[in-house]
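User: Predict the structure for this protein chain, please.
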Amino acid sequence: MTKAIIFDMDGVICHTNPYHSIAFQEFFAKRGLYPTEEEFALHMYGKSNSYILSHFLGRKIEGQELLELEDEKESLFREIYKDKVDPIAGFMDFFNSLKADGLPTGVGTSAPLANLELIAGTLGIIDKMESILASEHVKRHKPDPEVYLKSADQLKVKPDACVVFEDSYSGVTAAKNAGMKVVGVLSSHNREELPVCDLYIHNFKELSIASLSALF
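Assistant: Here is the predicted structure, written as C-alpha cells:
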C-alpha cells in the first residue's frame, strides 16, 4: 500500500502562532480591541480567519468583508514574519528523509496560499510536495475533513494510508474525520488539549520513518 505524509503548516512546519498573535494584536488594536493570549489560545490557534474575525468582532464576518479583513491581517503577518521563517526543530532533516525514501508529501493548511508560498517557498519545499492546499482550495474548513480528503486524492492514496501532522484541536479532528492517522505536534497545545492522536511529538528530532511505519 502506498503511504503519504500530510503536514498542516502553522504550528507544524513552523511555529508561527506567536507571530499570528502579534499580527492580530495590531489588527484588533486598530479597532479598539485587545484580546488576551488566553483568548487567542482558545479562539485563534488552528481556527479559520472567518471564525476568528467573527468571534472577536462579535458578528458574522463573511463575503467581501471577510476577504478584505483577512487580507489586511494576513498582510500584517507576512510583513512581520517574512524575515523570521524558521522550521520547527528537525523538520527539514525529517522532510528530506521522507523524500529520500520516495514518500509522497503534501501540505493542507487553513492559511491563505500567500502564507504557504512565503513559508514553503523560503524553506525550498514547494517543488518537492506532491500536493499543496490552502484556504482558497476548500469550501469547508477544519474540523471538516475536506482539505485532507482532497490532499489524499491529489497524492493518489487512500485516506487510511495517510499520516497527518497537526497541532490544533480542529486540525486533529479534521484528520481523524478523514480516517487518517494523526501525529500530534505539541507546539501550541499539550496532549490533554487535543483529541487522542496516534503519536505525539514536540519536534521532529523525536521522530523517525520507522516510528511512522509502525502506525500502519
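Strands lie at 4-7, 105-108, 131-133, 162-166, 181-185, 199-201.
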